[in-house]
Amino acid sequence: MKHVSVLKSEVLDQFSYLKGKAGIFVDGTLGMAGHSLSLENISDKLKIIGIDADEEALGLVKKELSVSKHSKNFILVHNNFKSIKKILVELNIEKIDGALLDLGVSSMQLDQKDRGFSFQDSTQLLDMRMDQTRDLTAAKILNFYKENQLSQIIFNYGEEKFARIIAKNIIEFRKKTPITTIHLLLNILDISIPKSVQMRSKTHFATKTFQALRIEVNGELDGLDQAIKDFASVLRPGGRLAVISFHSLEDRIVKKTFSFLAHPCQCPSEMPCICGLVPEIKILTKKPIIPSAEETTNNPRSRSAKLRVLEKISNTTNK
Ligand SMILES: C[S@@+](CC[C@H](N)C(=O)[O-])C[C@H]1O[C@@H](n2cnc3c(N)ncnc32)[C@H](O)[C@@H]1O
């Protein structure tokens, strides 16, 4: 199984301060470890904590590492990166020297036919879980959520303007048959989205609804802001957090949270500060770093990627 890491050299550049150093690096979204393994080019003395919600992905990396000289540098953790503080406590680690969050799903997950992430194989079940030990699947959402919940999810997380009619048709359809396969969902979407709109659109008519369901199944946006704050709080001064996002909803949260951490004091500018909150970080990417034309040609999945980087500047962490 292959995953082509996005913005690889741009990410490595951001961590060049670790050159030749010993230190602790957290890869919160290990995937196929593409970014993490390339960190070895910067320093082979780094201890890399590789977190992934997907046990299958971790299993594949473990297998690859077992025949690699780098295996001793890695600690693999099956968890959600949102539990970073707890994970570090359990590993008896207080501070880290760098961290990466490469959000979303990997090509491995998208290409695996039995995971239900992609609508290319329509016979598959509607699963979409990154963490298969959890209960909520896309099929459960489609068969048990109320009409207004479905409509809101599809509108908010998919930015799909036909969300209402899609939700209405889902309810009508499931009165007759449970919606279990990708094929059934594609039929519902096909009758809900006007043909003229489908023809004009640059993307497949199911793209937005699939994105919405995936975000809901995996709670991708819930607590992302707090996770970024937690990562910032455990960085050593001078340490950096790099975040790659793949859609505007994610990027908005990353941008807003970075901005809050860089300017936490919200006291009116004409009054003296009474909150006492001080910046913990500086933002290194005023504008996000995006893939080159060459990268997007070679790897179309990188098209929407945005890399934002912050650097810890102080030892203090605002409560
Ligand atoms: C885009 S891939 C990362 C690819 C990796 N950087 C590489 O180069 O191989 C994202 C990975 O992060 C995992 N993931 C996404 N959100 C997560 C979360 N909140 N906690 C832990 N893992 C997560 C997914 O299961 C997937 O394997």
Describe this structure in words.
The chain has 2 domains: about 10-105 and about 220-310, Vaccinia Virus protein VP39 (Rossmann fold, 3-Layer(aba) Sandwich); about 115-220, DNA polymerase, domain 1. Strands 3-2-1-4-5-7-6 form a 7-stranded mixed beta sheet, sandwiched between helices. By secondary structure, the chain is an alpha/beta fold. It has helices at about 10-15, 35-40, 55-65, 85-90, 105-110, 140-145, 145-160, 165-175, 180-190, 195-200, 205-220, 225-235, 250-260, 295-300; strands spanning about 25, 45-50, 75-80, 95-100, 235-245, 280-285, 305-310. The chain is globular, with a radius of gyration of 21 Å. Helix 3 (about 55-65) links the parallel strand 2 and strand 3 (about 75-80). Bound molecules: S-adenosylmethionine. The site of S-adenosylmethionine has 21 residues, from helix 2 and strand 2.
H and E string: HEHEHEHEHHHHHHHHEHEHE
What is the domain total for the residues? 2
Low-confidence stretches: none
CATH superfamily of the largest domain: Vaccinia Virus protein VP39
Oligomer: single chain
Distance between the termini: 43 Å
Q: Ligands in the structure?
A: S-adenosylmethionine
Strand percent estimate: 5-15%
- Provide mean pLDDT, rounded: 94
Which descriptor suits the 3D outline?
globular
Organism: Candidatus Berkelbacteria bacterium CG10_big_fil_rev_8_21_14_0_10_43_13
Keywords: Cytoplasm, Methyltransferase, rRNA processing, S-adenosyl-L-methionine, Transferase
GO cellular component, one term: cytoplasm
Enzyme class: transferase
